[in-house]
Amino acid sequence: MDAVLFDMDGLLVDTEGVWFEVETEVVTRLGGAWGPEHQEQLVGGSWDRTVAYMLELTQADVDPMVVGEWLIDGMESRLSRGVEPMPGALDLLRGLGDQGVRTALVTSSLRIIADAVLKAVGREHFEIVVTADDVTRTKPHPEPYLTAAGLLSVDPERCVALEDSPNGVASATAAGCRVVAVPGVLPIAQAPGRVVMPSLLDVDVDFLRSLVR
């Protein structure tokens, strides 16, 4: 195993609830209503897709850049109060560090959001960070994971990606990674090259190594 590649929202940190609060706030400001059925459309998706979906839903005549700023401001404000790592996430990162396994963070969030999260989690856990600002095509396209593997100079097929969303799983699979899925908001089925686990508490370094032969 050359490296372990971590998703962020919903996998590394418990931010899906925070996103829901901010999305609800922004859509209300646009004159619409927001529910779980709307969030499900966006889990693991791109920033641009989120803004476009909100404007399509509300039919509001607001500049997409302004809507994006509202989202950023809301997330920064909440993340500044701290963010909760998902169960088992920090123990797994420490275990990987102790054994010298290289790691990367691969997220569809903007770098400003990733930086705010990493202040709480610890930037030192990751050799590289790939965000929406670093690619032209976000998940479910394979570019984010291919970019991470390229920056690490490793073979994607010898990497394990940890994901919580169907979009993220599709991205990592298309890049050639082995995938461990820990479903969050949306269900994820077992499939060749993919293992579905209930929690990162059930994942350790030896288990990840066993997936790459």
Automatic annotation (TrEMBL):
InterPro entries per UniProt: HAD-like_sf, HAD-SF_hydro_IA, HAD_2, HAD_sf, PGP-like_dom2
GO molecular function terms attached to this record: hydrolase activity
Record flagged with keyword Hydrolase: yes
Keywords associated with the record: Hydrolase
Protein name in UniProt: HAD-IA family hydrolase
Organism: Microbispora catharanthi
